[in-house]
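Homework help board

Subject: predicted structure for assignment chain

Our instructor gave us this sequence and asked us to write out the predicted structure in token form, then describe one feature. I got the tokens but I'm not sure how to describe them. Can anyone check?
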Amino acid sequence: MAGEVDLDQVLRETLAAVAPGTELRDGLERILRGRTGALIVFGHDKTVEGLLSGGFALDVPFSPQELRELAKMDGALVIDSAATKILWANTQLVPDPTISTDETGTRHRTAERVAKQTNLPVISVSQSMQMIAIYVAGRRYVLEDSDTILSRANQALATLERYKQRFDEVSGTLTALEIEDLVSSRDVAAVAQRIEMVLRIAAEIRGYVIELGLDGRLLSLQLDELAAGVEDERELIVRDYIPGTGKRGRKLQTCLDALAALSAEDLLDFGLVAKALGHPAIDLELPLSPRGFRLLAKIPRLPGQVAERIVEHFGSLQKMLSAGIDDLQAVEGVGDNRARIVREGLSRLAESSILERYV
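My token output:
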């Protein structure tokens, strides 16, 4: 893993490996309960080999009990990246002393330097502070007990529920405005903003789910229910309102990346959200017309490829809404039955959205 690596991905994988319910977490907690410390390199390659001094090679199957017993010795441990084998025990790690570190304790200083030099995770168990810290390159992450993580996760979940409710409201309003051809840049920005907020809170909760391991199963189910379809909705919004067509048109991924790059503060500014979508930031009353991807996605059993052809054929939602069954049948892949499904589906969506808006 030395060289160019995705440090966020390495941290997520490491947190998953030490989550409650795993053998590695069991071993680390045994060390804590035994009131001894430990320094564990999580992975092995030539770079790690060059940092080892003394100790003995084991190459034995990993078990929590074995880890606990070997940690009683003063030296460091090296395990494989899958936490299935203990490779070295009672060895000394000799990293480059010129590597900067903010830590003060000998074990933690060594852990941070080894992590930076190898780009491998290093786990430090502190006897005096009774804590487990993970070092991934220049980052330090302290493991917390499940109750503390669950408390924060439940607060985030409550926030997600409120944001999702607000997203459903603005999404419904946008549907009604689309039917009436009254959409402005502000309306689209409001929905895109809520989508981003929901997705960012969901990403935070997914981090808690990883940390919680088996203890996060219920949380994971609740998250899946609340966040279902939101990411697809973001892509559909962008495809409906992305400016231009053909080679001169703004690319879908460019818009998605621009939205993701907005800071939490920038996300509160509708002008900046509109700009990320490719529209002028200074004119939020600019009238916009959707292509129709979003509404077609709400029609059951309509394949994505067929929806693509319908949008390409008609060019806008308003033309779709005014199209008859014969007009729809002119689209490749749309026979009589499918044309009726599309026609009836759009009519139902139009009726229900207007009723919800005005009744």
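Reply (TA_rk): Your tokens look well-formed. For the description, you could write something like this. The longest strand covers residues 85-93. That's the kind of observation they're looking for.
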